[in-house]
Amino acid sequence: xxxxxxxxxxxxxxxxxxxxxxxxxxxxxxxxxxxxxxxxxxxxxxxxxxxxxxxxxxxxxxxxxxxxxxxxxxxxxxxxxxxxxxxxxxxxxxxxxxxxxxxxxxxxxxxxxxxxxxxxxxxxxxxxxxxxxxxxxxxxxxxxxxxxxxxxxxxxxxxxxxxxxxxxxxxxxxxxxxxxxxxxxxxxxxxxxxxxxxxxxxxxxxxxxxxxxxxxxxxxxxxxxxxxxxxxxx
Length: 234
Description:
SH3 type barrels; six-stranded antiparallel sheet
């Protein structure tokens, strides 16, 4: 009879890959949702009153910087602490094998026994603290940028034919959108505007392209126009 192969302990996590991916995605959704709550709060909006559950399922992809600001530093810190934790354990074991006394940087056995029940809770507490700090700081900066008119400036055409737009000095800023509502900020009046998506005909970005890109496209069209004129000339 053939023996059933036993998975290597190093790759035991692969047996639960589906569960790990699901839990990881749910964590990303929770982080994106928390960012949304803090971000819209600066404009006096409780996003839970206007969003559907499906809106939060795509929260991790709305702003990639959210994941970069929150998740990447946490992963780097976890890797750093894990690496030096293993190095410290190996150094301590080597010192014990060589008969050397406990170094000043090594914790006593009594202290290790006292903190052992809380070792697994410390990464969770630190992770939650970092999510709060990073989300609060990042969303505050985003809100200040939008209130200064440095966000996504737009002009919105409504179903009645009217236009919601600002000026060059006081633009209309797009805060965000859900499946049912579009959130705008009027820098001229310092006021938040919530418009149902069914009332919006189109949204026109204002100054969304960099000047260098516009110049390149303009030169390209000029060359095409010259080429077409030369071809049409007898």
